[in-house]
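User: I've been trying to design a sequence by hand for this structure and keep getting stuck. Would you show me what you'd pick, starting by listing the structure so we're on the same page?

Assistant: Good idea, let's start from the same input. This is the structure you sent:
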């Protein structure tokens, strides 16, 4: 005999812990950022340390990483800023909207 479900409809996933929002496939945004940085640097993910990870509101579609000559949607965008450290150097990863975390080499601050 198989157990039956007592709830109606599909079960929903557990909510994410603060500072570790779910990203697209591949785990949390922190996991995705660590994986990307370890691949870029050719180091083990265990050698990448999380300095901070916080939910932020970006002032526009550049997600705090504007590129010269580009135009961006002028709307507040909820997202995440994760700072990682490897080899004594810090790296900023930004995400927001539907965009997975990406390395931002010239970050600007989120909206206040």
């Amino acid at each position: 005999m198989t157990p039956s479900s007592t709830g109606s409809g599909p079960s929903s996933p557990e909510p994410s812990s603060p500072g570790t929002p779910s990203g697209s496939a591949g785990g949390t945004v922190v996991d995705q950022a660590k994986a990307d940085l370890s691949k870029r640097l050719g180091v083990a993910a265990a050698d990448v340390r999380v300095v901070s990870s916080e939910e932020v509101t970006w002032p526009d579609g550049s997600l705090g990483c504007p590129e010269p000559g580009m135009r961006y949607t002028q709307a507040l965008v909820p997202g995440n800023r994760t700072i990682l450290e490897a080899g004594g150097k810090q790296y900023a990863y930004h995400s927001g909207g539907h965009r997975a975390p990406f390395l931002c080499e010239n970050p600007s601050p989120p909206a206040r």
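That's my pick for every position. To get oriented when you compare it with your attempt: The mean pLDDT is 83. The longest strand covers residues 49-58.
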